[in-house]
Amino acid sequence: MPHIAILSASVRTGRNSHRVALFFQKFIEAQQLATTELLDLKKYNFPVFEERLKYQKNPAALVLDFTEKIRAADAVLIVTPEYNGGYPASLKNVVDLLYEDWHRKPIGIVTVSDGSFGGTQVITSLQFSLWKIRAWVVPAMFPVPKVQENYDEEGNPTNKEATEKRAKRFLDEMLWCIEAKLRMQKQL
């Protein structure tokens, strides 16, 4: 069974995107699609890094722990809010920290906003950064509009049936990418 790290990118007080990260963790495990681990950047509370991990002389244990969890994952599902058309500094911080560890890693993008566009403006900037470091961005996206109306604080969707149907289609694409990568690794 594949292993997916779910990266909850917001560190803000009162954040709403974390609701969607909780939903995906519960849904993936309930459907037995993969094992998961929730990597909450708010709990990690990383400082702004001055250098990539590979150049750090004495990286903190928490940084090494986070890095190992990303490396061990078959894919990463990034759940990010949209802040003024971009993604949070907390996410950019860890993307740049682990440069090589993203190479050919399947990455699913879930965008969240409290408005009606579901964070879709953030997709292009995040995709571009991930492409530059040679991550494999899953073609399917999962935008979440009006998150505060559509998910409660525990990650339960208000329209469970429709949300789970959308999530299954999105995750099927991600699981296909994981399987394709595993098959390619066997051939190399």
Report on this model:
- The protein has 188 residues and is an alpha/beta fold.
- The protein has a single domain (3-187), classed as 3-Layer(aba) Sandwich (Rossmann fold).
- The protein contains seven helices and five strands, in the order βαβααβαβαβαα.
- The chain has helices at 17-30, 41-44, 61-72, 89-97, 121-132, 147-150, 160-187; strands at residues 3-8, 35-40, 75-81, 106-112, 136-144.
- Strands 2-1-3-4-5 form a five-stranded parallel sheet, with helices on both faces.
- Strand 3 (75-81), helix 4 (89-97) and strand 4 (106-112) form a beta-alpha-beta unit.
- The longest helix is centred in the C-terminal third of the chain and has 28 residues, at 160-187.
- The radius of gyration is 16 Å and the shape is globular.
- The protein starts with a strand and ends with a helix.
- The model has no long low-confidence stretch (mean pLDDT 95).
Strand composition percent: 15-25%
Q: Provide the domain count.
A: 1
* Average pLDDT figure: 95
Give the class-level CATH name.
Answer: Alpha Beta
The H/E string reads: EHEHHEHEHEHH
How do the strands of the widest beta sheet line up side by side?
2-1-3-4-5
CATH superfamily: Flavodoxin domain
CATH architecture heading: 3-Layer(aba) Sandwich
Biggest sheet descriptor: 5 strands, parallel
Shape: globular
Number of strands: 5
| Span between termini | 21 Å
The name of the CATH topology is Rossmann fold
Radius of gyration: 16 Å
Low-confidence segments, given as residue ranges, are none
Name the helicity range: 40-55%
Structural class: alpha/beta
